[in-house]
Each structure stands twice: as C-alpha cells, then as structure tokens.
Please model this.
Amino acid sequence: MKRRFLTTFVAGVAALGLALTGCSQQAAEDDGGSGGDKGDIKLGYVTGWTDGQSISLLLEDQLGKMGYNVETETFSEAAVLYAGVANGDVDMYPSSWPEVTHKQYMDEYGDKLEDVGAYYDNAVLTIAVPKYMDDINSIEDLKGKGKDFGGEIIGIEPGAGLTAATEKMIPEYGLDDEYKLVTSSTAAMLTELGNATDAEEDIVVTLWRPFWANNAYPVKDLEDPEGAMGEAEKLHFTATKGFSDEFGDAADYISKIKLDDKQYGDLEDLVVNEYEDEGEKAITEWLKQNPDAYEGELTGEEK
Model:
C-alpha cells in the first residue's frame, strides 16, 4: 500500500451535496451551459504536497460547475509558485502557508498577493520518528543519539518552509554537532521512511499536518518544548492581487470553504489513497460522504 501511495505524486452531497452540485450546474446553465464562459482560472501547487493537490481538485470540480475553465499546474518549489502567483502567471495557490511556514514569500511578494480566506486552522510542522522507538518522544531526546540515525534528519525540498524551520531547530536543540538535514523531495523522503519502517529501522524525518503520511506510516510527532518548529497556522487561498475583482462569485464561494480535521482527512484519503489518479471520482465520492463539509453559497437558485 505504501508504494501505491507514492504514485499519487504524479497525479493531479446527500441533500447538501446535491444542492452544491445543483447550484453549480444551475450557475453553468445560467451562463449558457458552456462550462467555461466565465473565464480561465489557473491554480498551482507544489509537486508532492497533497494538501494543495486535494484542494485544487475540489476547486477544479466546483468552479468548473460554476462556469469557469480551471487549469492546474504543479511546481517543484514554493518559491517559484509564489513568484508565479505574484506576477499573475498563476491565479491562485489554494493551500498556502503564509502565516509562518511561507512568511518569507509573503514578505517578498505580499503587496502583489491577495488573501481569499483560510480553509483549515491547525496546520503544523513536525519532526517525527517511528512509533516503535519508545525512547524517543521529544526533539530533546535526539541529543546524544545521532549515531542511531546515521547523523541524518531526512527532509523534503530545499526551498520548503519546513526545511527552513528544521535548519533553525537543529542548533536550538544543540543537535548541530550530531545531525545534518538531508534534503531532496517529499517523494524521496517518503521512500526512505517506508523502507525504514518496513525494516523497523531507526529514522527521523520532517513531516507536517495535515498530511496523509501520518496515517499511512507508523510515525509519531516528537514534542517540541522550545517551539522551534513554529506555532499552528492556517492554510489559505492565496491569489494574485485583483482576483476577487475579476472573479467575484468564485472568490466569494472559495472564502466560505472551512474544513475540520475529519473533513480534510476524508478528502485527502480519497484523493491520494482510494482513487489515486482519478481525481474527479475522488471529489464526487467526498461530496457524497461529507454532505455538511462546509457552508457556502454557489451562484444559482438552489441553496
């Protein structure tokens, strides 16, 4: 199963569910039924970051039914994606971390960006080890045990906010003499995590929540008494400046999307695990399973 999960990185209600779909279809009919007459919206997310993948698929489905032509592009680094949104090449990053993790990009491009709202309010960066490592429960417990991990903390992309936070954490806990952060990609990190846990070997990795891997692998978050990895933050819809003026009804709808842990977990599980590269089926099933997932008004007669 773990190997199957990794393949998803190349992929791209009830009563209320029917109402949501009905409203969307009604909007398209009112607009001529062409499914794209309201304009083109380009979404972007970082390859392998399944929060962005899942929310992009949801928006593709719902905004498409409202009459927009929605396209999604993936990027290798968050820095490139934020630059694309800032200069208008991409209309929206639908699962950004602007408060803490990606604050550096907000500082750089903030005057060219627009916050359309936040959909999830408990996103956190973590350092994790396998659950079978009973003697490691806090980042403090890593001190003096570098040899057990080959002196490595396995990370993700070099430009990720998680990478910057981990580089800051290492000296704060006095781990810089024993450990180095190894960066490459999210997929590569998960491959190493899967291999290690299959063999019940020691490994320490950088992770985050919400992320499907926390349930797919036998891992636990390490306590962070120094708060070096940062506080919990919200996941936002960050758009190019002027998005709400150009796509008013889309922005209004997007701003009302709010998901709790279960609703988000269901969405990501269906997108990443159950339906793999069949995104449309995953979203359809999620709307059926989560009829009260979020409140929002789509353009149309049915509410």
